[in-house]
Design brief:
This protein is an alpha+beta fold. It has one domain: Pseudouridine synthase. It is built from four helices and twelve strands, in the order βββαββαβββββαββα. Strands 1, 2, 3, 4, 5, 6, 7, 8, 9, 10, 11 and 12 form a twelve-stranded mixed β-sheet that branches. The longest helix has 12 residues. The two termini are 21 Å apart.
Length: 239
């Protein structure tokens, strides 16, 4: 088993690589980066990684890189890419079959009702608003959403939660936490009083466990919090 706790490989300033081998590469996304290209035309993280790999290995042609999963733009943390066409479908199946365990940390305004618990709701997405609404009963076109939370610590003004996802729905953590009054710091879309100056929200993909698509070893990746954020840095004792 490979347990990679915050080990960072030396890269350009805009790229933090947590793990790399012949088949996969794992990076620590900064808040504000997009994983794949969109209508904004901003350079996506996938292209940054491709450029770095091309330079590192002095590749003359195109670099293959498969996007396995995504994080919302204002969110930080672990993003896994496939470096070969052989590993991509295997990794896709891991996520599809819920065999990859994703753990997030969130800084929220209010304490949850219990120090730990499970939220089982139904989420309905509104594409026009790019927002999901949590319902306690099934409604038309909704999807079941399950997460488990645990209170990790209390800051001066906020609370730090750890969240394990059982399902992977659109804006699931943001919507479900908001529904119990645990609004994520900076998340205007889901009820925060004010935005963060850099447009981020305090939601971080902190840990990922999965079986290597080729070597069949268990891989555990842990991502450090954003370095220049004083609130995240105040959370470090609870990591």
């Amino acid at each position: 088993m490979n347990n990679l706790s915050g080990k960072v490989i030396s890269t350009p300033e805009n790229l933090q690589v947590l793990f790399e081998d012949n088949h996969i590469i794992v990076v620590n996304k900064r808040p504000g980066d997009i994983v794949q290209g969109d209508k904004t035309g901003d350079e996506p993280l996938s292209e940054v990684v491709k450029t770095w790999l091309k330079q590192k290995y002095d590749k003359p042609g195109n670099v293959y890189l498969g996007v396995v999963h995504r994080l919302d733009r204002p969110t930080s943390g672990i993003v896994l890419f496939a470096k070969t066409s052989k590993s991509l479908p295997r990794l896709n199946n891991l996520f599809k079959d819920k065999e990859a365990k994703k753990t997030y940390h969130a800084v929220v305004k209010n304490a949850p009702p219990d120090t730990e618990g499970t939220l089982e709701q139904w989420l309905k997405r509104n594409p026009k608003q790019n927002k999901s609404y949590a319902h306690n009963k099934e409604v038309k076109d909704s999807k079941k959403a399950i997460l488990h939370y645990r209170l990790l610590g209390r800051l001066e003004k906020y609370y730090l939660l750890e969240i394990d996802l059982e399902t992977g729905r659109h804006h699931q953590i943001r919507s479900q936490l908001s529904s119990i009054g645990c609004i994520i710091k900076g998340d205007l879309k889901y009820g925060a009083d004010r935005s963060n100056k850099d447009g981020s929200i305090h939601l971080h993909s902190a840990r990922l466990e999965f079986i290597h698509p080729v070597k069949k070893e268990k891989i555990i990746i842990q991502a450090p919090y954003p370095e220049n954020d004083p609130v995240w840095q105040a959370c470090r004792p609870f990591q």
